[in-house]
Amino acid sequence: CVTPVSGLIAIHRFVLLFTKERIKSILREKCLKATDGNIVDLWVLTRIDHWDHDQECTVCLTDQSLLLVSLNFITEKIRATQRIALNAIHTVRVGNLVSPDWSILPGRDYGGLQIVWGALKDTKWTDLWNPLSKDVPAATFHHHPCFYARESPVDKEMYDCNPVIYHLKEVLAPLAVQPVHENIVLNARFSFLNLFYNQSNLGFCKDRNGMSF
Fold first, then answer.
1. What residues does the HSac2 domain cover (predicted)?
2. 147 partner at 20 to 30 Å CA-CA among 5, 140, 158, 171?
3. Cα–Cα–Cα angle for 1, 196, 3, rounded to 5 degrees
4. Lowest mean pLDDT segment, chosen from 19-28, 40-49, 199-208
5. Exposed, middle or buried: residue 96 (CB in 10 Å: 0-12, 13-18, 19+)?
6. pLDDT for 211 beyond 50
7. DSSP 3-state of 77
8. Which pTM was predicted?
9. Nearest Cα residue to 55 out of 150, 194, 209, 191
């Protein structure tokens, strides 16, 4: 299972206004294709991108695909969708989130889930050094901040990484892909933007003292 952060936090997030069924309805209307099949389940998690930025991500598992959706919980608009065929996934990694030896970013003393659907070692350096690139064939996740709310939210399991591992284990079993337990090495770099971005929760739809973004 994914090792959690210690402690509870106060939450002012717009996703709390949404039930799982409401999110499913939005995705069916604006995102799903006939080739995806039916929705198996969905979660709202923290995605840690290849520049170590924490971002809110709606993870939707269907009969044929895994959809990684950037859904704005204020406007209900889909900002971006990444569609991965289930038969393209070759690695599901569960373990501690660790930084390379040369990184001077603060360490993450908790675990995560990584899904890989391509050859990471063959990823172009121009993609790895581009914070906006969508061509890195992997996604790393941790529990959503709402998982740590002082008052347990409705649909709390929607913010939990562990059910994702269970469902992926089930659907990928016929493809001989099963979770492996080992450290997840982040492609982390240091910049003041990283620290400001993550500490300010800019990757999440949040009420910021009366301002919503």
1. 10-158
2. 171
3. 10
4. 199-208
5. middle
6. no
7. coil
8. 0.88
9. 194
